[in-house]
Amino acid sequence: MPTFLADWPVGTVSRCYGAQLLQGGQVIHERALAPGTVAAALAPLRPADLAVGGKTVVVTRDPAAALRHTDPNFARRAAAAPGVLKLVHGGPDRARLDEVQAAWAALPGAGVIHERADRVVLVARGADKGAALAELRRQLGVPRARVLAAGDGPADAPMQAQAGVFVRVGAEVALAHADHTVAGPAALGRMLRQFRQGVAPPHLSAALTQMR
C-alpha cells in the first residue's frame, strides 16, 4: 500500500488489473482465466522467448502461489493452477511481444493489456479496473459522484467512467482527459490529504462538495 494511504481506512484491495477485489481479506469479486485459456496462451511461447531477458509469470488467487517460467514443470502446473488471475510475459523483443499479444487477443474469453513496451498481460475478458470499481460501487451503494480515482497508466483509463473525479498521476497520454493532473505519487498524497481537510483546486470544488 502506498505510504500516503497508511493512515486511511482502506478496506478494499484490487489485484491483477481488477481481476480480483478483496474486502477485509475476503474475495468479493473475481474474474479468473479458464484453464484451457491459460494452456492455449502458453502454447505459442518458444524457448527463445525466455532465453535472453524474457520471463513468464502466472499469478493466481493465492498471492504466494505465483508460478515462474523457471519453476519445474511450469507449463503443466500453470495450466492446472486454480484461479489464474493473470498471465504475464515480458521480453526485450518488441516485435515478438506484438506477435504474442495478437495470439492472446484471439483466445476466447481473453483480454490483453499491453501497458508497458516490454510486457504483455493476459486477463479474463471483462477483468479491468473500471469493471472492478463499478462492482465495488454497486456493493457499497456509492454513487459515481462520490468516487475519486487516480491512475498513471493506460490500464487505469476504464476507471474514469466510474469516478466523479479522476486524477492523472504523471503524463500518460491515455489519461489526458482526466479531471486533474499531479506530478507524481507524493503530489497525489498531498492532494488527498487536502481533500480530507475540505480543500480542493478551484475547478474541483463543486466535486468535493458532492463527495462530502
From TrEMBL:
Keywords: Hydrolase
GO molecular function, one term: hydrolase activity
Keyword Hydrolase listed: yes
Pfam families per UniProt: Hydrolase_3
InterPro entries in alphabetical order: HAD-like_sf, HAD_sf
Protein name: HAD hydrolase family protein
Organism annotation: Deinococcus multiflagellatus
